[in-house]
Here is the input.
Amino acid sequence: MHDRKIVHRDIKSSNIFLTSMNIIKLGDFGISSFLNHTHDFLKSFAGTYFYLSPEIVNRKPYNDKTDIWSLGVLLYEMCAKEPPFNVKNNDKKELERKIKKGQYKDIPPIYSDELKLLIKKMLSLDSN
Here is the structure.
């Protein structure tokens, strides 16, 4: 997808499907966008709040790395059984504050240090 300069912008658990042949598919490209060049950036505010990258929350230009952040949120959620940036009463301002800080609890200790490092890299505030 990224090799084809497509940014999904809404990667989340409800957009991932498992076929009868046990093949994982990514769906719902309704708000996806195309980049003309690999060095291009997008500016529109799009996506599901719990999965938004810091760039989007800060209303800064972003690229396909926003999808890596969302995958990191999804991976964390699969391990911890809750989002990394959890808030009460769907308080969007509080959620934005937590995403901007990039701080979250460690995933449960049953998981490997390599998995913890992968999540840390995917949820890095520095998209580089």
Remarks:
- The mean pLDDT is 81.
- Residues 65-80 form the longest helix (16 residues).
- The radius of gyration is 15 Å.
